[in-house]
Specification:
By secondary structure, this protein is mainly α. The chain is built from six helices and no strands. It has one domain. It comes from Allgaiera indica.
């Protein structure tokens, strides 16, 4: 049941990205072009995503378990440090250059051609490299 709900949720998310135009790299890059032909669509999509998430976080404070069972993950730490700023800058640069972030890139795989496939492959490779880096960093911290 959990896999079915996850698949339906992912499909709904992908459909939302498609309907809102967030799989169109020109639209995303238009949002980031503050001094050119600025496109505010992404601001509305982000605002529309924040409202239900605020409601969801408030709801989880009263309910310790998810509807389908299992623990609800803790709210992320709200610490602004060098790692967060560096990661945010790298994410933003990649997003501005390619016009894709992970969700829309995967949603666009069916129609984005070789460029979209190359982006997803590079994204997966980057995630793998980061996982290796984290393991090495944790191992070094334990031995120090």
């Amino acid at each position: 049941m959990r896999i079915l709900v996850a698949a339906l949720s992912g499909g709904l998310f992908g459909l939302g990205l498609l309907v809102s135009g967030m799989t169109d790299t020109a639209r995303v890059q238009g949002f980031l072009d503050l001094f050119g032909h600025w496109d505010p669509t992404l601001a509305f999509v982000l605002g529309g995503a924040i409202a239900p998430m605020l409601f969801a976080w408030r709801l989880t404070r009263r309910h310790p378990r998810a509807v389908l069972g299992g623990q609800i993950p803790a709210m992320p730490e709200q610490v602004i440090d060098a790692r967060l700023l560096t990661g945010s800058a790298l994410f933003g640069l990649g997003w501005a250059l390619a016009g894709f972030c992970p969700g829309p890139a995967i949603a666009a795989l069916t129609f984005s051609g070789i460029g979209g496939g190359a982006f997803v492959a590079a994204m997966i490779a980057g995630m793998g490299l980061f996982a290796i880096y984290e393991r090495l960093r944790q191992r070094a911290a334990v031995t120090a």
